[in-house]
Specification:
The protein has 331 residues and is α/β, with parallel strands linked by helices. It is built from eleven helices and eight strands. It has a single domain, classed as NAD(P)-binding Rossmann-like Domain (Rossmann fold).
Length: 331
């Protein structure tokens, strides 16, 4: 696929301080029209010192993106690895550091991710008229296996990939004594799951815990690595474009799908904030309609406004009455 992104839409002069001079590594940045590509363009075109464009299978799109960034004078370089393969991930370490002038990345955007084609968790296939019981068992078994293999790949990519990338690059930051910032890309489906994508919803929920887990484990070095999580709404990409006209899919969250450049500008506005405002936070991007209903072909609103909300997960722990009244006691 050829490069198709509207390059000039990713120039955000008001937010250049967010990335000027940064050594940026973005996982899952190869796919044309994807969220990772939007991160690469918005960092590279606004002053980043270097941009590592990671991809696994989307190498053709990835190299097209790198060529575009290089044409713009950006020091961009390819990073091919399977983030779920720990040996593969470790193998890129020295190469990335070398490409960045001997220092590790100081802005890491963990964006790798997949989603399922769709199945309803806990439901089985309906009976087909005239189908024998043995044929139905075989069909249901295969459906069960195929669904969970999809979910396992989604979970491996998001959870294992993010955990391994964090372990690698936070470790390098501590070793080099270089402050680093890690951004984790999650989804609003983590806290408001839709049907048919259970692995996606669960993996994005797990991502919300990574900043806290990292801080606890860094101990005295916790101030050296800052991090926050993004909970993004529906953005028009290759994975979501088929739903762009289906208000039942995105409509419960937003009046229309966001374009990647719109999401990217909101991200840059957040990234430009002081680190002490964002460190450890979970930030949910809200999409509100403004200006009434326009005459767009899809019947959508005349415009949208984007507002970041900070999300807090407040645990409420209470003793269970019957257990507190008669606790088990041991000598």
């Amino acid at each position: 696929m050829a490069y198709t992104a509207p390059t000039d839409s990713f120039r955000f002069d008001g937010f250049r301080t967010a990335v000027t001079g940064k050594r940026v590594l973005i996982t899952g940045a190869g796919k044309d029209g994807g969220i990772g590509q939007a991160f690469a363009l918005s960092t590279g075109l606004n002053g980043a010192e270097s941009v590592g464009v990671h991809f696994h299978r989307s190498y053709e799109d990835g190299f097209d993106l790198i060529a575009q960034l290089r044409d713009e004078g950006v020091h961009a370089f390819p990073v091919q690895a399977d983030v779920t393969n720990l040996r593969d991930l470790w193998a890129i370490r020295s190469y990335v550091i070398d490409q960045m002038g001997g220092l590790p990345p100081n802005l890491i955007i963990c964006n790798s991710g997949l989603t399922e084609s769709g199945y309803n968790l806990g439901r089985t296939l309906r009976q087909v008229e005239g189908e024998s019981s043995s044929l139905r068992r075989a069909r249901v078994r295969q459906h069960f296996i195929d669904n969970l293999e999809q979910s396992r790949l989604v979970l491996d990519t998001k959870v294992d990939g993010f955990l391994a990338s964090t372990h690698l690059w936070a470790g390098e930051a501590v070793y080099a004594g270089e402050p680093a910032q890690i951004v984790y890309v999650s989804s609003r489906q983590a806290v408001d799951p839709g049907p048919a994508v259970p692995g996606y919803a669960l993996s994005n929920w797990a991502v919300l815990q990574l900043p806290k887990v990292l801080k606890v484990n860094l101990g005295r070095s916790a101030d050296l690595v800052s991090c926050f999580t993004l909970l993004l709404p529906f953005v028009r990409t290759g994975m979501t474009n088929e739903y762009a006209g289906n208000e039942r899919v995105y409509g419960r969250w937003q009046p229309r799908m966001l374009e990647p450049c719109e999401m990217a500008e909101a991200f840059m506005a957040l990234l430009a904030r002081p680190i002490d405002e964002t460190d450890g936070g979970m930030f949910e991007l809200m999409v509100n309609s403004v200006g009434g209903t326009g005459d767009a072909e899809d019947g959508g609103p005349a415009g949208v406004e984007l507002v970041w909300h900070q999300l807090s997960l407040n645990l409420d722990e209470q003793p269970v009455g019957w257990s507190a009244e008669e606790p088990l006691q041991f000598s």
